[in-house]
Design brief:
Blueprint (H helix, E strand, L loop, with lengths): L3 E6 L5 H14 E9 L7 H9 L6 E2 L5 E6 L2
Length: about 70
């Protein structure tokens, strides 16, 4: 099974798909970065809502962008 240090999520925007994509990303990253696109978007608000609902997780928003990221294993 391959491992990854960097995963960029920009797929479907329903809560179900975001949840699945996030679970899959976390399953292959032991130490690295997961980035979600469309964070803070006025069109795809589900991404922002999903990330805000994730308890015990710390996300960072790249100001001026539609990207948020999480550091895994650091």
């Amino acid at each position: 099974f391959d491992r990854s240090q960097f995963v960029f999520i920009d797929g479907g925007h329903s809560k179900e798909i975001i949840t699945k994509d996030t679970k899959n990303a976390r399953s292959v990253v032991d130490q690295g970065v997961i980035i979600w696109h469309d964070y803070g978007s006025n069109i795809h608000r589900e991404v922002t809502s999903f990330l805000h609902s994730e308890e015990n997780r710390k996300f960072f928003h790249v100001i001026g962008s539609l990207c948020a990221f999480e550091l895994i294993g650091f």
